[in-house]
Specification:
Layout: H1 2-15, H2 20-41, E1 50-56, E2 61-68, H3 83-89, H4 96-103, E3 106-111, E4 117-124, H5 125-136
Antiparallel strand pairs: 1-2, 2-4, 3-4
């Protein structure tokens, strides 16, 4: 399902005015969060549900909401790792949340009333373009 999700989100982001490069950053974050849910929430069991919705608004904001039926995750209790330190160490784990914090406008997490979690990732093209320009300088 990942290729279909990528195409669907790519179309939404580009229709909302995100550049090709900014769209790739959105996809990177969403895929990383989905992988974390699959690995840590579901223990890599196949066939577990993820529901993804996307909304745009007139200000150029893109919100992607990922819902799951995994055990409730305590977002605040997990220590935030430093992305720069992870890069220097060549870390292959622990990058998802710092990467999401760097590339999103903001993140929301809540427990779903019927169980599971809801993760809201809000992006704006201006923030992503600024991150891309930082890379160039």
């Amino acid at each position: 399902m990942l290729p279909k999700l990528r195409e669907w989100l790519k179309d939404i982001a580009q229709t909302a005015g995100f550049s090709v490069e900014a769209t790739q950053l959105v996809l990177l974050v969403v895929e990383e969060m989905a992988a974390n849910i699959t690995e840590h929430g579901y223990g890599n069991r196949p066939g577990e549900p993820l529901w993804v919705t996307a909304r745009t608004d007139s200000r150029g904001l893109l919100e992607i909401v990922i819902e799951d039926a995994a055990p409730e995750y305590d977002w605040e209790s997990v220590p935030e790792l430093d992305l720069h330190e992870l890069a220097l160490e060549g870390a292959t784990r622990g990058r998802g949340r710092p990467l999401a914090r760097l590339l999103t406008r903001d993140i929301g997490h809540r427990h779903r009333p019927d169980g599971g979690n809801e993760l809201s990732l809000r992006f704006d093209a201006v923030t992503l373009e600024r991150r891309l320009k930082e890379r160039e300088s």
